[in-house]
Amino acid sequence: MESFAEGTVPETERVAFMNLALEQGKLALDSLEVPVGCVIVEDQKVISSGRNRTTETRNATRHAEMEAIDVLLEQWQKNGVTREEVALKFSKCTLYVTCEPCIMCAAALSIIGIKEVYYGCGNDKFGGCGSILSLHTSSSPKLTRKEFKCTGGIMATEAINLLRSFYEQGNPNGNLMENIHFNCNGSNCRTLRQCSCLYAGRPT
Ligand SMILES: [Zn+2]
């Protein structure tokens, strides 16, 4: 698995936090969701976690990263944290996610100004951190996007095995699966091969 930056966190720490992200992925699997999980860490403490909830919410944007970000935003909003303070807080946070952030999530992480990202397996269809686009390496002052350090390949095998077990067990929510495809051709989506989405090729 390719790494896109060396990263600043020691190996043992990366593995420990990625294990927690994998646990979130397992919770997603138990809930019959595509198993992707993440944790957000500040000062070596997990301050938020998230798992994919696209099927449950019937909302294609409810990826693990968005869930974890929203937990913090809600909490900070309740505590009256200012916009500037939110930006400062995110700039000290590191995200561990089992699968490379998609383009949407990579853009969001760049906008909130996350410090660093570690991911497990690559996302060949929609990866926003090197596979398709490299949103982590390009700043856009107009959109106030910031670069962030991003390193892939942390426990990639475990992340892939998790995804594989989801596809192998079959998907009881097959009729809802089009919700998590964001680049498919509508009705062709469930015929799998014609769909270019991340989840194409899964068993029906
Ligand atoms: Zn995403």
Automatic annotation (TrEMBL):
It holds the Pfam family dCMP_cyt_deam_1. PROSITE patterns: CYT_DCMP_DEAMINASES_1 (PS00903), CYT_DCMP_DEAMINASES_2 (PS51747). It comes from the Eukaryota. Signal peptide: none annotated. Residues 12-140 form the CMP/dCMP-type deaminase domain. InterPro entries: APOBEC/CMP_deaminase_Zn-bd (IPR016192), CMP_dCMP_dom (IPR002125), Cytidine_deaminase-like (IPR016193). SUPFAM superfamilies: Cytidine deaminase-like. Keywords: Hydrolase, Metal-binding, Zinc. PANTHER family: CYTOSINE DEAMINASE FAMILY MEMBER, TRNA-SPECIFIC ADENOSINE DEAMINASE 2. This is CMP/dCMP-type deaminase domain-containing protein.
